[in-house]
Write a structure and sequence with these properties.
heterodimer; A: about 425 residues; D-Maltodextrin-Binding Protein, domain 2; six-stranded mixed beta sheet; four-stranded mixed beta sheet; 17 helices; about 45% helix; B: about 300 residues; mainly alpha; MetI-like fold
């Protein structure tokens, strides 16, 4: 009996020890946190990749932190203030300079697989590079662009020339001439949708309208001196914004109140749509073959298109940057993740992904968008003052579209941007760049 | 004769005038009700369409109020979109947060209101002024320091972090104060003479008389808690305590908006609040009417 009691005690002790050891080993797992946004499909895709990574690396636990797209910046600020930055973070490319300058990110090159670095498109490298040390701080599977979608029947009716590629894009004269003709065509309520319906709280205005200013020959800020005054409110920019204001005044542009579906809504009241690559899926679903995809028009001498999307960076405070980098590499190479991205018409940021995306391949419906990325893409100003810049520019455009004087609105915006830069002592060492 | 004529036509004129007024009243109420109900109806209709692009294409036309081929597929997808019945979990999370916030909020704010109205506290007037002053401070302005406080307290990603900061509220304390202060002084004095303690007077006499105030605060606090979005976004990280308001935001992605599922999820989110409102509607209205008359 005593022996049996002793055995029982021993077995209980052994079991307890085993449990403690197991708990110990569970505690010993390396935890890597990753903050991301995205719709349910992306959320599931990240969750599945994390599971596969954990299966391949049983000593690592990937903790996903979800933040809604519309409240991502607030969530990020909260993480910064509470000193709870995740190890890996998804970030909107134009905010990269601000994050690096603030010390939130670390160079990513030493942390991810070399074959991935070699696989990046020029535009992808540009969106993840910090201009001061020219180092790469973030990498993504995808990128983005804006193209001009056209209603085939309407364009044929006015005898419009359909550009074959980026070099062949409409000139300003052609573009405005077609807008004028379309405005008089039966069935067309608005010649173009510039997606004012996205509102002024998203990045859309700076992302999509900024390139039109750059194409006209000016910019949102002087990228050498980092001064907005004299550039954003220059005569060229004022003329370009007045041109767009004129389109609105003539009733050529779909108003904000009419939403973002007028290109393909019943009766197809908008003839053209200056939309992101993602718009193709919804437009083509409704319009089938009655849609042509064209490059953005050349407002001045050269064509300019936007780029940049949500990419992955590793925080400066990451406890295990090597493992974080290993996971980023795993994610970007994961077949199922790439398949899901492909199913969402994702714009390729890696050459191998482009080769596997028929939508963007030569002859594909969005080939012109991919061609733009290599020929005309210009990243949004990579400067720590970008959050102020984008907000000031968006407010200016909103005022101009609502009838304010373009010169006055752009000068106010330029002053706001320059004041922010001055308040931050020029964001050294950006102030030393000339 | 003319007097007689006047006496017979005058009531008829008044009668037709009253009828006219009633018609105007009816039409006005009907139009207002239509304006209020139509977005909800559109939401319900859109939730029964399974093509998100079609929903968008139908917006702005009367087709937004019509579904030719209704389906519950959006509800099924919403229920299972991130794991089996994940949405049920988000709904339960929101309910737990609501019940706990309203339950503790009623106790804390009514006690504070009672003390401010009947207590023998020194500096009561100053305290009351502070409570009113606190009400004008917008939640957004204190949200970041609050995030840091909660994070340092180790409460991130818990239910407690979504309940504790919103239990004590200057608005509801003031509402209770206003209600208690209007009750007859004799009630308090009679109970005091009978030897009832302050807590007993609060619990057994004033609280049972405060049903309208309790209903109003329950509804306002409940709706406020149910619709919280920014705060839970900042303080939740995983599914564990994530409420439905944040979960719905998942359908609004960077490049695409899943209107079909967002609409179905919104309908699901609306149901508990509607039930709450319908259950307390009588007290809610009477309380508002009462305070309007007295105010």
């Amino acid at each position: 009996m005593r022996i049996s009691m002793g055995n029982r005690l021993l077995s209980v002790l052994s079991a307890s020890t085993a449990l403690i050891l197991m708990a110990g080993s569970a505690d010993a797992k390396t935890v890597v946190t990753m903050m991301h946004q995205g719709d349910p499909g992306w959320v599931k895709a990240y969750g599945d990749v994390a599971k596969r990574f954990e299966e391949a690396n049983p000593d690592v636990d990937i903790e996903l932190i979800y933040a809604p797209h519309d409240a991502y910046n607030e969530k990020f600020s909260a993480a910064v203030m509470s000193k709870q930055l995740p190890d890996i973070m998804e970030l909107d490319a134009p905010f990269l300079a601000n994050y690096v300058w603030s010390g939130y990110l670390q160079p990513i090159k030493p942390l991810v697989d070399k074959d991935l670095l070699d696989d990046m498109t020029e535009s992808n490298i540009a969106q993840g590079t910090y201009p001061i040390d020219k180092d790469l701080y973030a990498i993504g599977l995808t990128d983005s662009s804006v193209v001009l979608y056209g209603n085939k029947k309407y364009l044929e009716a006015i005898g419009a020339r359909i550009p074959k590629g980026v070099d062949d894009a409409w000139t300003r004269e052609e573009f405005e001439g077609y807008l004028d003709k379309l405005s008089k065509l039966d069935g067309v309520k608005w010649p173009i949708d510039t997606f004012r319906g996205y509102g002024i709280k998203t990045e859309w205005i700076t992302y999509a309208y900024g390139p039109l200013l750059e194409s006209a020959g000016c910019d949102l800020i002087d990228r050498k001196t980092w001064v907005a005054g004299g550039t954003l409110d220059s005569e060229t920019c004022v003329k370009a914004m007045t041109m767009m204001q004129d389109w609105v005044k003539k009733g050529w542009v779909v108003p904000t109140s009419s939403g973002t579906n007028q290109f393909y809504a019943e009766g197809q009241p908008a003839a053209l749509a200056m939309g992101g690559h993602w718009f193709y899926a919804e437009a083509s679903a409704a319009m089938k073959d009655n849609i042509v995809v064209m490059p953005l028009p050349k407002i001045g001498e050269k064509g300019v298109s936007p780029n940049g999307t949500w990419i992955w960076g590793i925080s400066a405070t990451a406890k295990n940057p090597e493992i974080a980098g290993k996971f980023v590499s795993f994610l970007l190479k994961d077949k199922e993740y790439r398949d899901y991205a492909k199913s969402q018409s994702a714009f390729p940021g890696l050459k191998s992904f482009a080769a596997d995306s028929p939508l963007y391949a030569e002859g594909g419906p969005l080939a012109v968008a991919f061609e733009q990325a290599s020929k005309t893409a210009v990243a949004r100003p990579p400067h720590p003052a970008y959050p102020t810049l984008t907000s000031a520019f968006m407010q200016a455009v909103d005022k101009i579209f609502n009838g304010s004087d373009a010169q006055e609105a752009l000068t106010t915006a330029a002053q706001k941007i320059d004041e922010d830069i001055e308040d931050n002592a020029g964001y050294p060492p950006f102030d030393e760049q000339q | 004769m003319s007097d007689l004529a006047l006496s017979t036509t005058a009531p008829a004129a008044i009668g037709s005038g009253k009828r006219g007024l009633r018609i105007v009243q009816f039409v006005s109420i009907f139009v207002i009700a239509l304006v209020m109900i139509s977005p909800l109806f559109m939401l319900l209709i859109a939730s029964l369409k399974d093509d998100r692009f079609q929903i968008l294409a139908d917006m702005g036309s009367f087709r937004a109020f019509w579904v030719s081929d209704p389906t519950l597929s959006n509800y099924r997808e919403v229920a299972n979109f991130s794991g089996e019945l994940a949405y049920g979990r988000y709904l339960i999370n929101s309910l737990i947060i609501l019940v706990m916030t309203v339950g503790t909020g009623l106790v804390v704010n009514s006690m504070a209101g009672f003390v401010l109205a009947w207590g023998t506290l020194r500096g009561k007037a100053v305290l009351l002024a502070i409570v009113v002053a606190l009400y004008v401070i917008p939640q957004e302005s204190i949200i970041m320091p609050l995030v840091v406080m909660m994070s340092r307290a180790g409460l991130t990603d818990t239910f407690a972090v979504q309940i504790l900061p919103w239990v004590a509220s200057p608005l509801y304390t003031f509402l209770f104060y206003q209600f208690f202060a209007q009750l007859p002084k004799e009630l308090y004095e009679a109970a005091e003479m009978d030897g009832a303690s302050t807590f007993r007077i609060y619990r057994s006499i004033f609280m049972p008389l405060s049903l309208p105030a309790l209903a109003t605060v329950s509804i306002l606090m409940g709706i406020e808690s149910w619709n919280q979005y920014l705060w839970p976004t900042l303080v939740t990280q995983t599914d564990y305590a994530r409420p439905i308001s944040v979960a719905i935001a998942t359908f609004f992605g960077q490049d695409s908006i899943f209107w079909d599922r967002a609409m179905a999820a919104s309908v699901l989110m609306m149901i508990p609040v509607l039930i709450l409102y319908l259950a307390f509607q009588r007290w809610f209205v009477s309380s508002f009417v009462g305070s309007a008359v007295k105010g």
